[in-house]
Structure formats: C-alpha cells, structure tokens
Design goal:
Elements lengths: L6 E7 H4 L3 H11 L4 E2 L11 E7 H15 L4 E5 H5 L6 H5 L5 E6 L2 E7 L7 E5 L25 E7 L13 E7 L9 E11 L4 E13 L5 E23 L5 E3 L1 E2 L2 E2 L5 E3 L3 E23 L4 E24 L8 E7 L4 E8 L13 E23 L3 E24 L7 E5 L6 E4 L3 H6 L14 E22 L2 E26 L4 H6 L18 H4 L13 E2 L7 H11 E7 L5 E18 L2 E25 L12 H4 L2 E24 L4 E12 L3 H5 L3 E5 L1 H7 L13 E5 L8 E14 L3 E13 L1 E20 L5 E22 L1 E13 L4 E12 L2 E5 L2 E6 L7 E10 L3 E10 L2 E6 L4 E5 L2 E11 L4 E8 L6 E5 L7 E6 L3 E9 L1
Parallel strand pairs: 7-9, 24-27, 30-33, 34-38
Antiparallel strand pairs: 1-3, 2-3, 4-8, 5-6, 8-9, 10-11, 10-51, 11-12, 12-17, 12-50, 13-16, 14-15, 17-18, 18-21, 19-20, 20-23, 21-22, 22-25, 23-24, 25-26, 26-28, 26-29, 29-30, 30-31, 31-32, 32-35, 33-34, 35-36, 36-39, 37-38, 38-41, 39-40, 40-43, 41-42, 43-44, 44-47, 45-46, 46-49, 47-48, 48-51, ...
Helix pairs in contact: 2-3
Length: 968
C-alpha cells in the first residue's frame, strides 16, 4: 500500500462491502485509487481486498460517505486523513463535524462527545471494541478523549442505531475507535508531528509531539507499530458561579440602608465564587501493536496502550457567602421582581452605625499534585475458514489516579476592607471591594486565617476490567440470509474509591507513638495548633492579572500557594493517612451473548438480532454518621472533634442482579444509485455512573447546643447548622437506563463526495439519573450522648424514619422522551471550495422523578439540549488548504433543584475554529490553527422561564497552534 503526501489508507473488504457493481463503481470513482490483492492459491477462497487511499479533505469526506452509504445501520464515519487535519488535537475534535455530534472542551481540547442532543453520559466509547479505563481520582465510565492523539487512530465509526453484535451501553450512540495496524500500512512508514501552542489566558508557548512508526518484514506477515505522544500544557480556566442556591430567605429591596416601601422581594445566593484554576499538565502516551499472519488462516495480534497524566494545579478563589446578609451591613439590596431574584447587594462595615469587621470576600485556595495512569493490553486470535471467520480476544485494562499531595486554606479580610458588593445583572457576576484591601493585607492589616477551612483531604481511585470475547461470522447462502454473527463476552470490572488526609505535624511529633495509641487526627495538624502561615508571608506579590470578563472584579487578592507549600515543608513533617472508612467499591460481572443475521432481498438489506445481558452489581460503602453535640465550652473555646463531634461508620453492602434482552432491527432500501432509505428499531441500556451507585452516605446530626453556639459565628449556615439532620449520598438502588428507540432516514448521494440526508428519531427512556437536593427520611440506630461541656445534658439521636434536610442524592426518572430531526449536507465545488452542514433538533418532555418509589418532581433528560449544529467551509488545492468550523449547541438541561422545582440550564454556546495547512513537499506539511477564535464563554442559569437567574459562566481561553507534520 502506497503512502501519499497528505493521505492515509483504509482497507475495506471487497466481498463484504461492495455488493453492487453500480455502487462499487460510483464509490471508486469518487475516491480515486484502487488496488486489488489476490491470493494465488486456487484451492482457497480469494481474499480480495479493496485499498482506498484518501487524499486531503475532499477524498477523506468521500470515503466517509462511502462507509455511510454501504453500511447496514445508521452510522457516520471519519477516516485517517480527516482525523489528522488540524486543529484536531484528539478524536473528539475530529468528531465535532459529524452530523448530530457536539463536543465539550476542557483546556481548549475536546473532552466529551454528545450525540443527537443527549448528554455525553449517554455516549458509549470503545477502543478496538473494548473499554479503556481512566481514573482521575474518582473512577468513571466515561472515556477520556484527551488520552488519545489523532495520529494513533485509523478510523472512527459513530453508530446512531444499535446492532446486536455491539456492546450495550450507549443510549445516545456508540463511538468505535479503530487504531492503526502495521499489516495495513506500508513498511517503514509513519507520521511525526511537532507543534507549539499558545493560549491567551496563560501567555505561554508550549511544545507537543506525537508520532507513529510502522514496520513489517519482506513477506508482509509480521508487523510492528509503535506510537508515542508527549504534551506539556498549561491551562487556566476562569469561572464565576453561585455555589449554593435555595429558597431559605426572602429579601426585600433596599436603598441607602432603608427598606423600599412596597419594594420587590427575591431570594439571594447563599454563596458565590470567582475562581481561577491554573493547571500544569504533562501527558505521555504509548501504543505498541504487533501482528503475525501465521498462514492464510491464522492471524495473531497484540495491543498495548499506556497513558500517564501528571498534573500540578493551583486554585485561587474569592468566596462571597451570605454571612453578612443583615441590615447592620446592608446599604442597598437590588431585586428582579419577575425572577424573584436578588441581583445585587452593597455592604458597608458602618451600615448599622458601628463599624464591624468583614469576613467577606474570603480568600480561598488549594494546591494539588496528582498523577493518573492507564494501561490496557489485549491479545487476539483470528481464524478464517472456508465459509466462516472466528475471532477470540482477551485483555485487561486498569487505571489509578488521584493526588499525592493536596492542601487548602482560607483567610478573612477583617480590618483590611471597609466595603464590598456584588451584581448579577448582564448575565455575569460583577464584584467590587475596597481597593486598599490588597495594600492593607500586604502591610499586615487583617487577613485572619479560617482554621475550619484549612485541611488536606483528597480522593484517589482505581479502576480495572478483565474481558474475554468470542465472535463468529458465518457466511451462508440461505434465501435472504447472507451472514450469521454470534458471540459471547464476559467482563469483570471493579472500581475502588478512597479518601486520604495529609497532616502537617510538628517536626518533634512522635508519629510511631501516636500510631500505636489513638492514631493521628486533624487535632494534631498544624492548622489546629497555631501553625497556619500569616497572610503577609504568603500573599502574592500582586493581585491576579490577565483575567477575562468572566472574572469581573476590581481586585483579586490571592495567596502564593507555592510559598505556602515551602513554609509547610520547611517547618513541619508530612503524614498521609489512608482513611479506612471513607470508601466505596462497585464490582460488576457482565455476561452477554448475541446472535445477528445480515439479510438481503433485491434492493432491501440490513440486519436483525438479539442480545442477552446479565449484570450482577455489588456495591459496598462505609456510611458516615456525625453527631455534632457541642461546639464551644463555657469559656468560648472550641471543643475537640473527639469530644464535641464524634463519628461512627456503618458498612453497607448491596447486590443487584438484572437481566436484559435487547432486540435490534435495521433495514436499508437502495432505491437507486443515488437514493437510500433506512429504518431502525432497538432496545438499548446504559449503566448509571459509579459514583451515583456507590457513593457512601453521610448523615450529620446537630444538637440544639451546637446550633446555638454556631449561630454566634459569622459562618453560621441556617440549613447545615440548624438543629436536626442533613446529609448526602449515593443511591445503590439506581436502575440501568433503558431506551426503546426508532430511526428513519432518507439519504441522497450525488457528485464526488457530495450528499445530503434527513433523519427522524425517537427515544423512550426510563430510569435516567437526576441529581436531587430534597428532604428525605432515613433510619440509623438510636444513640444517646451525655454532653459534659453543657452541664451533662443528655442528647438522643437516630431512630426510624427521621427527617433529613437538603439531602443530596440521585434518583431515577421515568417515561422520558427524546424526539428529533437531523439534517446534513456536504457539497464540493470543482474550484476547490466545499462545505459541511448539519443540524439536529431534539425535543424532550417533562418526565417524572422518583425516589424510593415516590414521585419527588419532574425533570427533562439531564444533559439534553434543544438543538445542535455544525458548519464547516473549506478550500483545498494541491498545496494549500484552509477550513473554518462553526459549532453551536442550544440550551441544555442541568441538575434538578427541588426547592425551586426546576432545573439548571446551560445557555446556547457557539464557537469558531480555523485551521490552515501548506504542503511544503510530498511528505512535509506545515499547519496553523486557532481554537475558539470567538473567545466564547459558557453561561448557566436557573430555570427556563428567564435567563436572569445567574448560576455560572466560564472561559477556557483561545488557543493557537503552529507545527509541522512529516509523513514517510
């Protein structure tokens, strides 16, 4: 197979794909170069293979249309050349131009993929037919697209309709990634890419490299491919958000510290945050693939993928709690009457007549050093008989990740500030404070530490899956049935999530003696023993700069968290404790089997089949119960945790076993050489997120004595600190999401690589997962305590079915519908210009949300969006190509907020990317690109009746790339 200056090659089996000579001729004419390889032995079946060489944007798009045109299902495909075109830094970037696909970005790169307006959680992604584990602390079912550079991938298939032979898991759709194979590539061929990137939010130029090399012997029966990627990247995400919102207190409009007679009333945010997250990432990846064609019948294969992500991050925050929401601080309160929303408050330390000290804005921050790794290997054996082929594959994927070091701290302004305020109009959070605050802090005025917000707790996790599968394809000539597929697969997966605490202890602290005694607790930490550095010693040299409009403030004082780290390391010894109780585990044993028939009758073709799945899920978690009995003694001193806030842990195990029978049916009508009509029906499932299933439950009881003490504190929380119970936790009773779905489409193919299509689809979804905050009942054993610090008062807590306020959990929704239409069109002009365009509209209903069998509210499908569209225009000739891509995603549904009886909504988001390349020679291509040319920002609000209830907005930056790609 011959490499070309801008192309890559894709093999398509002639005997299974080009069924009709007319279609074959049309596709070959559109794509260009064809080469047939024949096996000389007349005793064996001819192994005839079509090798399609794609060249540039036009030819790769023609190849994509060819795959779609000839498939028996509703799929989209992108081939190697389209994948490799800048600015596609990973596969998610490449998928953004596929009809019905929208991506979410992190740090300027594609991170998740959504199909047909549904949440990315409903997209099931596999690499070479199997799951890839990735564990950035908290294990997830989601595939991390940022792991894979585009150079490692040969082809991607996006299945919008299901087949029995496909693994279950994608209600929205399935994305199958196929890596390059050495026997499919030219001997001693490969790709090298070197480039530099720059982002406006970091002002840094950083390198990245990726490359692959493929070798095979002269007999072309042994091949080896090696791929490597390395990337150094600094990200600087900027966000403003409301951290806590409910309907606890209704505030009335106020001017000049006086209530406005008959003024509007509204609810105010409990906590707001402006934050800048700075991340230094080092990412490495390696691929090793080997193949051995032992003879005409046997092919052995081996794959290894290893990825490592090292990350140091610093988080700067300004937090605005409602601690000073009282008339002794207020001068003005502004209210949007229609939205019942407080849009701004001005605070002054002399508003009530006497000067008072400010605890707002609190200066928060944290430093994290972490590393995540992912390793996957598999072995395969393929056998080709006279009328059947069989493939056996087994492998293992495992990942671990999380911080090795983390600390966080907070400081109050106190005397450093005399006023502050905020405003939520204009769909942004605007804040202002005393401009002398930073100078005062620098001079040692104010800046008291918040001891209660200083700790070093973090989460780590592991994830693993062993799998084995056998697939058989049997070719037969029995009336309409052409091919019979059947197989079996077994997967055993397990995740583990734990919590760890790092304590910085006095250098003379006897660790061994403490471990032999009652152990080391937070009471031994530097933060509880007067060791928190003075803010004057750790304050940054100047306020944060290079801020976008998202961080709309006149001043951003910040701590230099590296200075903070130096002080800790110089003055204390570090001790990390793995908590035996703050853990959860989920283990899944999945057995599946399928049978599928491919059929053809005159101009009709397609497939039908049945998939059987049995899933046994075992979840275990250590539920934590905290009894907050007393906060301060009679002298006003804070009581130790062991005495005032005892804890106990209850281990809960639960086993669920479920069986699903999943039928599927696909039909294609080749009306003529240009027109194709498709229909599909299937039942599919997706499994709930691990954290939603297994997360441990935390229940906290607050006594009247403790609540009374806390009410005198500035940081008193009227919900969390009130007498009674609050809590949060996972829901091990969550059921797998089930969807019965239908597709109908009409496709028109004309010209070279040009075509259009229209499709309608409907999905009836049960058991979708909705995050909730609501009041529930719970039961724990009754406990009685004698509070010695409160006159030996007796407190009884627990029992059957007591009320828990503001419980954070997840529940299943029922009877949800997603109905929509999808249109796409791509056209190529003879002068080198062309375009892609697609639009998807998705309508979802208000579905019931149930917890413990009771309806608790209504919500649309979480993560669903009203519409999405992509438009790309390009020009290409033998030397030069340029492409501009416009992506737009309509409003999408966020979590359900029970107190408001509505959801969060992400507003419409659009973005433009531009890339260009120049073919310096047959092998060398120079490229440049801009991602997020429009400097687009995200915006979230509460409810779909108005956009004026600000919840969050964010900006990840505009990023520039320049580099060179050498193909050999």
């Amino acid at each position: 197979m011959k490499a070309n200056k801008v192309g890559a090659s894709v093999k398509v089996p002639f005997s299974t794909t080009f069924k009709k000579s007319v279609i074959c001729t049309a596709i070959l004419c559109s794509i260009g170069v064809v080469h047939a390889e024949e096996v000389e032995s007349s005793e064996k079946k001819t192994d005839q293979v079509e090798v399609i060489e794609v060249r540039g944007i036009r030819a790769s798009s023609a190849a994509n249309l060819a795959i779609k045109r000839l498939s028996n299902s509703t799929i989209e495909a992108i081939t190697a050349e389209d994948i490799g075109k800048f600015p596609d830094k990973n596969i998610a970037d490449s998928l953004q131009r596929v009809p019905g696909v929208v991506i979410e970005r992190s740090g300027g790169e594609g991170a998740t993929v959504s199909i047909r307006g549904l949440s990315s959680d409903f997209t099931f992604t596999q690499l070479n037919g199997n799951f890839i584990a990735s564990s950035p602390g908290s294990p997830s079912r989601s595939f991390s697209y940022s792991l894979l550079p585009s150079t490692m991938i040969e082809m991607v298939e996006v299945y919008k309709s299901s087949e029995a032979r496909l693994d279950e898991g994608g209600i929205g759709g399935s994305v199958l990634l196929h890596t390059r194979k050495p026997l499919n590539m030219e001997k001693n061929s490969g790709v090298l890419n070197v480039e530099s990137t720059y982002a406006d939010v970091t002002d840094k130029h950083e390198p990245q490299f990726s490359g692959i090399y493929s070798w095979k012997n002269d007999a072309e029966d042994i091949g080896l491919l090696v791929g490597y990627t390395r990337q150094d990247r600094t990200n600087r995400a900027q966000n403003a958000r409301i951290n806590i919102i409910n309907q606890n207190f209704l505030y009335q409009e106020r001017k000049n510290n006086q209530v406005v007679e008959g003024g509007a009333e509204g609810y105010a945010a409990q906590s707001m945050v402006q934050e800048v997250l700075e991340e230094d990432r080092e990412r490495e990846g390696i691929q090793v693939t080997a193949q051995w064609q032992m003879n005409e019948k046997w092919l052995l294969g081996f794959n290894y993928f290893g990825f490592k992500l090292g990350q140091d991050s610093v988080l700067h925050q300004l937090e605005y709690p409602e601690w000073h929401n009282k008339d002794s601080y207020w001068t003005n309160v502004r209210v949007d009457a229609d939205a019942q929303w407080v849009t701004g408050i001005d605070y002054s330390n002399g508003a009530g007549g006497a000067e008072q000290l400010f605890d707002v804005p609190r200066i928060n921050g944290e430093y994290v050093r972490e590393e995540s790794t992912s390793d996957t290997f598999d072995f395969s054996v393929e056998y080709e008989g006279d009328d059947y082929t069989a493939k056996f594959i087994f492998g293992r994927t495992e990942a671990e990740g999380g911080p090795s070091q983390k600390y966080r701290a907070a400081y109050y302004p106190k005397e450093a500030s005399t006023f502050y305020g905020y405003d939520l109009t204009g769909q942004q959070l605007t804040t202002y404070m005393d401009p002398e605050m930073f100078n005062n802090l620098q001079a040692g005025i104010g800046g008291d530490p918040d001891v209660g917000a200083t700790d070093s707790s973090f989460v780590t996790g592991t994830q693993e899956e062993d799998y084995a599968q056998l697939d058989v394809e049997y070719t037969l000539d029995y009336k309409m049935i052409e091919t019979l597929h059947f197989g079996v697969k077994y997967r055993q997966g397990k995740i583990h999530r734990d919590t760890r605490n790092t304590f910085y202890l006095d250098k003379d602290f006897d660790v061994a003696a403490a471990e032999a005694g009652n152990g080391i607790t937070l009471d031994d930490d530097y933060s509880r023993n007067g060791g928190i550095p003075l803010i004057v010693d750790v304050l940054a040299d100047k306020p944060l700069e290079n801020l976008s409009d998202v961080i709309n403030t006149n001043l951003f004082p910040a701590v230099d968290w590296h200075k903070y780290e130096e002080i800790l390391n110089s003055n204390f010894q570090r001790y990390t404790r793995k908590e035996p109780n703050f853990i959860y585990e989920v283990e899944e044993d999945i057995l599946s089997a399928y049978i599928q028939a491919d059929y053809k009758y005159n101009d009709l073709r397609g497939n039908f089949g049945l998939r059987f799945v049995e899933t046994e899920t075992t979840s275990s978690a250590t539920d934590k119960v905290v009894y907050r009995l007393d906060y301060k003694d009679a002298d006003g001193n804070e009581i130790s945790q062991d005495q005032g806030r005892p804890e106990e842990f209850i281990l809960n195990d639960k086993v669920n076993k479920q069986t699903h029978v999943l039928p599927s049916f696909n039909i294609v009508w080749d009306i003529n050489d240009s027109w194709v009509m498709r229909g599909a029906a299937a039942k599919v499932i997706s499994r709930p997120a691990y954290q939603d299933l297994g997360d441990f439950q935390t229940l906290t009881y607050t006594s009247s004595e403790y609540s009374a003490d806390r009410s005198l504190e500035t940081a008193f929380d009227p919900i969390y600190d009130a007498e009674g119970w609050v809590g949060s936790g996972g829901n091990s009773s969550l059921k797998p999401l089930e969807s019965t779905q239908f597709d109908l489409s009409l496709e028109y193919y004309y010209g070279e690589g040009s075509g259009a299509s229209i499709a309608v689809f409907k999905k009836d979804v049960d058991n979708f997962v909705v995050p909730l905050i609501l009041d529930v009942t719970r039961s724990v054993p009754v406990r009685e305590f004698i509070i010695e610090t409160a006159g030996n008062q007796t407190v009884s807590a627990g029992g059957e079915n007591f009320l828990v306020r503001n419980y954070r959990t997840n529940a299943n929704g029922t009877n949800a519908e997603s109905t929509g239409i999808e249109v796409s069109w791509q056209h190529f002009f003879e002068n080198g210009f062309g375009f892609y365009a697609n639009y998807t509209y998705n309508d979802t209903n208000q579905a019931n949300v149930e917890l413990d069998g009771n309806k608790v509210g209504e919500s649309p499908l979480i993560g669903s969006s009203d519409y999405q569209m992509n438009f790309s225009a390009f020009y290409e000739d033998d030397l030069f190509s340029v492409r501009a891509s416009y992506n737009r995603k309509g409003p999408s549904v966020g979590a359900y907020v029970s107190s408001w009886e509505t959801n969060f909504y992400n507003d419409t988001y659009d973005q433009i990317d531009v890339n260009a390349s120049y073919n310096f020679s047959e092998n060398l291509v120079f490229s440049a690109s801009v991602v997020n040319l429009t400097e687009s920002e995200t915006y979230r609000h509460l409810g779909n009746d108005t956009k004026n209830r600000f919840i969050a907005n964010g900006y990840g930056g505009r990023r520039f790339y320049a580099g060179a790609t050498y193909r050999f």
